[in-house]
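Q: Please design a sequence for this.
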């Protein structure tokens, strides 16, 4: 069980991440790459990513076990981009590398026959030995492996990841406006339970996180599934990584993006342009009808066409639905400017 303890100061300092975090998405996606579940949601992504990687994942496999703890230094705090994060990882203090990698080596023996388990544990320790000593060459290999994995698994899909995270953020923002911080915390996925002044969740280990006035950053993540994630080191800036809401449409990947193109031809006319403008900052169908000056049925129909064209995402929020723009929709309103890069 994970229990996050809030004070009054902490409630005043709860904040939402403004964008997906490159590093949480990178590391958590590696968990999704190795699991066999959720084929509908991640199957196409797994196939495409594995074809790019050509099996080059041994170092990351040693660092990131299939379940449980992985080193905190792999997810630098502060929402930094790819290059800044790689430099932060390269600059990790040797004593921190040693202590965190020791936890990885000692805490996750493979679930196999005892002799094979011992062999695999020894293999993992061997791969991590030079890294745990803080030597420059193993650190350089790690940086190269992370960059290559990010290029294969995250970079081609960033617009899709960003769209899902921004849609989830819009839902949480609506909850905050409707009922304040308590409503926001209560709106988080069902795996998280707000029982003031404690936020609880099922967790692999017993964990008490006391914020002590530092507040909490809420970070929705596309690749976080099931339980949320927090840093093991309580001295790091408190962040709660939780599963972003996924729309019922499982389409994901390059072929899904290509399939959107025929639908774009349906996007014509001043009314639909006004509808797209009205959705700019997120709105329910009723608000959309009012802002665009159309009937409720017409607003719902226009939103459906925009959604099919890949310009709008729709998520359920309580008894209503909330429409938000995808990066493609936002770029269209900006006159074709590209979505924000991951680096």
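A: Design:
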């Amino acid at each position: 069980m994970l229990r996050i303890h809030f004070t009054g100061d902490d409630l005043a300092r709860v904040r939402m991440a403004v964008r997906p975090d490159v590093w949480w998405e990178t590391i958590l996606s590696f968990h999704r790459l190795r699991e066999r579940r959720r084929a509908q949601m991640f199957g196409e992504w797994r196939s495409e990513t594995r074809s790019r990687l050509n099996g080059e994942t041994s170092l990351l496999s040693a660092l990131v076990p299939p379940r449980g703890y992985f080193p905190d230094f792999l997810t630098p705090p502060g929402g930094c981009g790819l290059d800044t994060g790689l430099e932060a990882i390269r600059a990790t203090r040797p004593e921190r590398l040693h202590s965190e990698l020791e936890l990885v080596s000692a805490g996750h023996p493979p679930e196999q026959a005892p002799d094979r388990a011992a062999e695999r544990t020894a293999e993992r320790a061997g791969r991590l030995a030079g890294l745990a000593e803080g030597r420059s060459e193993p650190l350089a290999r790690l940086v190269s492996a992370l960059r290559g994995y990010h290029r294969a698994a995250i970079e081609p899909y960033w617009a899709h990841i960003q769209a899902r995270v921004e849609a989830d953020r819009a839902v949480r923002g609506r909850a905050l406006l409707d009922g304040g911080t308590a409503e926001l915390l209560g709106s988080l996925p069902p795996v998280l339970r707000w029982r003031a002044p404690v936020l609880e969740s099922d967790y692999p280990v017993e964990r008490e996180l006391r914020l002590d006035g530092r507040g909490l950053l809420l970070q929705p993540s596309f690749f976080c599934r099931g339980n949320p994630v927090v840093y093991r080191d309580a001295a790091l800036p408190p962040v709660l990584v939780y599963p972003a809401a996924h729309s019922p449409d499982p389409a994901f990947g390059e072929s899904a993006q290509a399939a959107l193109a025929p639908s774009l031809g349906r996007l014509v006319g001043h009314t639909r342009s006004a509808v797209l403008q009205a959705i700019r900052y997120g709105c329910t169908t009723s608000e959309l009808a009012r802002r665009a000056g159309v009937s409720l049925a017409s607003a719902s129909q226009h939103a459906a066409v925009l959604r099919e064209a890949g310009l709008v995402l729709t998520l359920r929020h309580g008894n209503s639905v909330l429409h938000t723009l995808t990066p493609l929709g936002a770029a269209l309103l900006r006159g074709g400017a590209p979505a924000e890069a991951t680096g």
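Q: Thanks. Anything notable?
A: Residues 101 and 121 are 13 Å apart (CA to CA). The chain has 15 helices and ten strands.
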